[in-house]
Amino acid sequence: MTKEVDLVIRGARVVSADQIIEASVAVAGERIVAVGHDDTMPPAREEMRADGLYLLPGAIDSHVHFRDPGYPNKETWKTGSAAAAMGGVTTVFEMPNTNPSTGTVEALRIKQKAAESSYCDFGIHGLLGDDTVDRLEELLDAGVTSFKAFVGNTFGNLPAPTDGALLEGFEKLAPLGIRTVVHAENSSILQRRQKKMQAAGRIDAMAHLAARPAVAEIEAIGRVLTLAEWTGARVHIAHHSAADSLFLLREAKRRGVDVTAETCPQYLLLNTGHMLKLGGVMRLNPPIREARHNQPLWDALLDGTLDMIATDHAPHTPEEKTRESIWDCDCGFPGVETQMPLMLTEVNRERATLMDYVRWSAVNPAKAWGLYGTKGVIAPGAHADIAIVDMQRAGTLSQNRLQSISKISPWNGRAVKGYPLHTLLRGRFVMREGKLVTDAVGWGRSVKGVQKMPTPAPRNTEHYSSAILQTPPGVPATAVPVGAVDWDAA
Q1: Nearest Cα to 123, choosing from 170, 73, 89, 167?
Q2: How many Å apart are CA 327 and CA 388, to the nearest integer?
Q3: What is residue 124's three-state secondary structure?
């Protein structure tokens, strides 16, 4: 007799990166146990009809700021993860620029405690900086999944790592196979230009872009890729914004550098025309750029130069976003809840396919962070992380309906078509019929236990900082060579 399962979703269209099939899906406990013809499904305690709906692997957002600990007026793990659940996002990777920053085991423990209220699964990026480079291994042992280096300055004003510390960090992480996210802008350029403009009295919205030209991204990405290629480290370029720097990614991938890169809906769909209308609401790092950048970023997603969609979910209060001077407007805005409807709308406009979207939102992030097979796919044995989507449902995004504490968004009033109706995380509904399942609070857990990064491929290890601390065999212990010339006699 076939064993009864917990749930069968019947009559759906199951989407992968390669195909869309008519199929039903059976869930037992936290995992998918069958995908196939409706007649082959086992008996179930609960059944759901999904005729005309699409089953997508739950989205994996590599880049969120839940501001917890430290900034509960902006966001908490509970509210940020609720926004993720409402947006069809089942796994997030949270950034370290909280207070305290996630650069010590003690700070990590505070964040892990806060994350106990999460509606979604999560990874935690530890901080790679001059003061933390000697603690990377202990942070990994304590539960971080990956690291973040703020090469460009951003919220929290964490100092950018020196090139020496960045190289040493890559040297330590390359043999472990751990990927480092990099905010790739040249801090020196940004700070010098901003200081000069402030002295000149510029406080307009466009001054933010002028302070952070594309060349700052080009230079930083080139520098990061050089260090990554030399060491064999795995790197991930966060919030790629400029068309001008895409050639660096293409060339690095051609050479075999293990680099992945994300872009965000704001860089695909917004530009300086919107900035002129919305001002500080749209201030973020890197900045929203001219319209000429939009289509090349789409092209880069489609050809694989860019690997994935993330959001850089970065909430602030309305008061913090609407100050007179652009320099006083906090950087970032919420995005984890709106990403899926925004991107599904573009699929409906035939800018990409649903299979493309699944590749960008689930498959490639799962591969980059060592989760593929357990997450990022609807298949037997995988976690039952599923977004059930109605591609025909139309509506208007409203900042007032966001789960995030931050009720200010450049997407407010934007018409969309395509919504997640239900979100399952490891077999449990965390959003159902468009409503948060509030008793699922705390169901999320760290992905550290299921993370399996591919075999590392370190390079040039004989030149690593750890290898140069001892005098090598055959080299005199002092700077005086053996059989030195008698300089007085000479």
Answers
A1: 89
A2: 41
A3: strand
Q: Which of 266, 368, 252, 355 lies closest to 308, judged by CA?
A: 368
Contacts of 349 (CB under 8 A, 6+ apart): none
- 251 CB-near residues (< 8 Å, 6+ apart): none
What tokens does 192 get? 């010098």
CB 190 within 8 A of CB 216: yes
Q: Which pTM does this prediction carry?
A: 0.97
Percent helix, strand, coil in the chain, to 5, is 35, 20, 40
| Per-residue CA distances from 368 to 93, 261, 362 (Å) | 12, 10, 10
Which residues are paired to 25 by β-bridges?
9, 35
> pLDDT tens digits, residue range 353-397?
999 999 999 999 999 999 999 999 999 999 999 999 999 999 999
Could you give the CA distance from residue 369 to residue 337 in angstroms, rounded to a whole number? 21
CB 51 within 8 A of CB 96: no
Q: Write the DSSP string, 43-104.
A: PEEEEEE-TT-EEEEPEEEEEE---TTT-TTT--HHHHHHHHHHTTEEEEEE-S-SSS-S-S
Residues 364, 356: contact at Cβ < 8 Å?
A: no
SS3 161: coil
DSSP 277-309: HHGGGG--SSPP--GGGHHHHHHHHHHTSS-EE
Each residue of 75-123: pLDDT tens digit?
Answer: 999 999 999 999 999 999 999 999 999 999 999 999 999 999 999 999 9
Q: How far apart are CA 361 and CA 89, in angstroms?
A: 9
Percent of the chain with pLDDT over 70: 97
Residue pLDDT, tens place only, 442-459: 999 999 999 999 999 999
pLDDT in tens, 37-82: 999 999 999 999 999 999 999 999 999 999 999 999 999 999 999 9
Question: How high is the pLDDT of residue 487?
Answer: 66
Which two structure tokens, joined as six digits, stand for 236?
Answer: 């991930």
Q: What count of other Cβ atoms lies within 10 Å of the Cβ of residue 445?
A: 16
Both tokens of 425, joined, read: 């995380």
